[in-house]
């Protein structure tokens, strides 16, 4: 509780603003330069690094100098810094990030925050660019081998073709009779391909949709799994995670995957922020993240199952945690939906799953066939007999003076006046108007 309160950071004293540029979100390389230019920050940063060297967290936090260093650095640009994917000094940036945040966290959390800047782009941009660059749209022909089309599209781009040929050659090169490839070099070549080639090409190779096993097997073989993915035996998944966390780059890519692909059942797509692009980018970034590289487990066309090369055998009392970690790959609705969305050429922004609210129609129109477009149906909801009855009530004198069957009335609605005219009752009203004034005179003469 004490460390959580301290991490909140005390507010700046009134009237004292932080130095220019400090609380602005910058990459960690730039933040390190800003800190080095400030004597107080620089000395505290050196103190913190010494505190973290060879000590566990509890011992470090018990030291007052280490705690003071943490408090000062919380107000420095290092605290809020992030890294850009594929930046020139990415590894240096990540090293600086973890040098701070490993001291601010327990270091044993199941999920860690991503050190990378948030992804704001959407898949719709990649759908548009993919068709422009390749000259072919995978969504237009359901019979074609989309993974083969993706390979052809890559070959039309010099950069994509060169780097793809490079990693295929490296990952397929046999070293000796017992070692058929150099996994380390293969991972490096793969990482260069996915970091340096635009996602319009890499996504189509990784996430192409398939209707037959030949296509699905080509998709599975995209990363040359015999070298980059498979091994003689499957290690324990928690051991694999721990090994990954000892490397700054692998740790960062894994944390980024969990941040952007962790299933969220409060969103439309099961993805955080309904952002398919962020999840697919994190997945692609995890490939060649050393031994944590995920891949398709088979060439199935009916289901998509992704997994790192590991199992939960030998987990002991950590089996539940191991299974949870593995399910983030094998049973992840966010990742599965994102892959299917790209393969189908649909994005949550382009084809929302929540339909527009239905228009409420009057009860009489239920199950009625739609009217032709050239007919004006603006008055079809009204019943003419109701209008006739209401009109009769409004004109009681006409009904009493000239009683007649209802069938003799015509309901001609005039354009200018909304009144009803009885064509046969006009004469009766005329004679009644002339006779009635003479009745009293006749009665008087008879009395006399």
Description of the molecule:
The protein has a two-stranded antiparallel ribbon with strand order 1-2. The longest helix has 15 residues, at 90-104. Among the domains are: 28-102, no CATH class; 145-344, Orthogonal Bundle (Annexin V, domain 1). It has 448 residues and is mostly helical. The chain has 22 helices and two strands. It is globular and about 65 Å long. Helix content is 50%, strand content 1%. Residues 345-372 are annotated as: Disordered. Belongs to the GDNFR family. Pfam families: GDNF (PF02351).
| CATH A-level architecture of one domain | Orthogonal Bundle
Distance between the termini: 120 Å
What is the H level of CATH, i.e. the homologous superfamily of one domain? GDNF binding domain
General shape: globular
Average pLDDT, rounded to a whole number, is 74
Uncertain regions: pLDDT < 50 for 5+ in a row?
1-22, 132-136, 350-436, 442-448
Proportion of residues in helical segments: 40-55%
Organism: Phaetusa simplex (large-billed tern)
Membrane topology: Lipid-anchor; GPI-anchor
Pfam family, one: GDNF
Keywords: Cell membrane, Disulfide bond, Glycoprotein, GPI-anchor, Lipoprotein, Membrane, Receptor, Signal
């Amino acid at each position: 509780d004490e460390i959580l309160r301290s991490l909140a950071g005390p507010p700046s004293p009134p009237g004292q603003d932080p130095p220019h540029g400090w609380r602005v979100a910058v990459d960690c390389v730039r933040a390190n330069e800003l800190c080095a230019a400030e004597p107080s920050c620089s000395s505290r940063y050196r103190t913190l690094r010494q505190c973290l060297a060879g000590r566990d967290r509890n011992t470090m936090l018990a030291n007052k100098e280490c705690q003071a260093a943490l408090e000062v650095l919380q107000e420095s640009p290092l605290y809020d810094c992030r890294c850009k994917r594929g930046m020139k000094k990415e590894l240096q940036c990540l090293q600086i990030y973890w040098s701070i945040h490993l001291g601010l966290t327990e270091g044993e959390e199941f999920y860690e925050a991503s050190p990378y800047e948030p992804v704001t782009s959407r898949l719709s941009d990649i759908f548009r660019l993919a068709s422009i660059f390749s000259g072919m749209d995978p969504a237009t022909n359901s019979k074609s081998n989309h993974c083969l089309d993706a390979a052809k599209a890559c070959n039309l781009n010099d950069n994509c073709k060169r780097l793809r040929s490079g990693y295929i050659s490296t990952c397929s090169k046999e070293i000796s009779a017992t070692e058929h490839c150099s996994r380390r070099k293969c991972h490096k070549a793969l990482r260069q391909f996915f970091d340096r080639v635009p996602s319009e090409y890499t996504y189509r190779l990784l996430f192409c949709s398939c209707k037959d096993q030949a296509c699905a097997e080509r998709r599975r073989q995209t990363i040359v799994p015999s070298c980059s993915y498979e091994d003689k035996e499957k290690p324990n998944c928690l051991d694999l995670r721990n090994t990954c966390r000892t490397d700054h780059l692998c740790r960062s890519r894994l944390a980024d995957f969990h941040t952007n692909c962790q299933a969220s059942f409060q969103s439309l797509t099961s993805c955080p922020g309904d952002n398919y692009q962020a999840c697919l980018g994190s997945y692609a970034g995890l490939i060649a993240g050393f031994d944590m590289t995920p891949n398709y487990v088979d060439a199935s066309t009916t289901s998509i199952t992704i997994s790192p090369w590991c199992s939960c055998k030998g987990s002991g009392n950590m089996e539940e945690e191991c299974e949870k970690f593995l399910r983030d790959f094998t049973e992840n609705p966010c990742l599965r939906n994102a892959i299917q969305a790209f393969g189908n050429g649909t994005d949550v922004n382009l084809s929302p799953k929540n339909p527009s609210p239905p228009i409420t129609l009057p009860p009489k129109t239920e199950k009625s066939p739609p009217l032709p477009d050239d007919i004006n149906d603006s008055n079809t909801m009204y019943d003419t007999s109701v209008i006739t009855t209401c009109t009769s009530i409004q004109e009681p004198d006409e009904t009493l003076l000239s009683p007649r069957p209802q069938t003799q009335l015509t309901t001609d609605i005039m354009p200018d006046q909304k009144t009803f005219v009885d064509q046969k009752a006009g004469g009766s009203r005329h004679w009644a108007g002339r006779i009635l004034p003479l009745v009293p005179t006749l009665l008087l003469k008879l009395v006399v």
